[in-house]
Amino acid sequence: MHVSGVQLFWFILIGLLWAGYFFLEGFDFGVGMLMPFVAKTDLERRALVNAIGPTWDGNEVWLIVAGGATFAAFPLWYSTMFSSFYLALFVLLVALIIRGVAFEYRGKGNSNNWKRNWDRVIFFGSLVPAFLWGVAFGDLIYGIPLNASGTFTGNFFDLLQPYALVTGLATTAVFLLHGALFLSLKLTGDLKDEVIKTLKKVAPVTTVVLLIFLAWTYFVARGDGHSGDVPGFIPVAAFLMVASVSWLAREKLFGWAFIFTGAAIVAITATIFMTLYPDVMMSSTATRYSLSIVRAASQPYTLHVMTVVALIFTPFVLAYQAWSYWIFRKRITLPTPDSSTNAEKDPT
Asked: Pairing with 87, which of 125, 241, 276, 312 sits 20 to 30 Å away (CA)?
């Protein structure tokens, strides 16, 4: 089996799109999951929403592009994955939809119950995707029941295997820590202090969970049917960067800590895709039924046309997103009793 250059290009590009999505949407998920634990008043919860309000929907574009690229470049991978994970992806998409609705509607009512209920939706709409994305990629690596035609022959509970659940816990923990570090850079005052207290508790737990995930992935990658070769420094670097967050937080180097968790997310995504290569989905029924890059790919002409389009338009997308983060770079400051004008306007 020979993987062509253009097939390899699109496999790498899809991996980069997922890495970008997890890096950016990861701290969005983390902020949403932190809301019940660090924000005690409506004003504080609104500050957390304001921290990600201008950019969360732009971060979702990475998911759309990753899904569209998979559909166009590897249609068999797309169809097999969606048919296999149908119920799980349905739950995940519902969570993402109601989360977006919550951002828009929490400010439409004035009662505390109205806002608190939408805040609960934001929490669960962040927790469920953070966990299920990890479960899905854990299943891709470990393998699910696929027959010779690529048809899923199992049931929903076959997706909830121990390795996949640990992967889900790892992504949830890393996103939670990533979100706390983002807030430490975005907030000021007592609310920032509360976030820092929480991240100091979260960091050691995240380090342990990530170590378990990476160690288990090492043994999975060397199991039957896996021919991917992950350079050892990539997962080791991911672990060391997350492990260093506790020390960086004590030294109040939150900017470096945020960069480290972001780089760790990229390294974790690289570990997942390199473990899969040259396959895109593993079959637990028989290794010969695993879905390879070559088998799943579109025709060469399609891939070449897509490559030209991607090389032209991707820089514009990256430039726009960088510009949006620059525009909304200011910190969120809660109003004091003497001033009600310091807080940024609630986008909802």
From this structure: 276
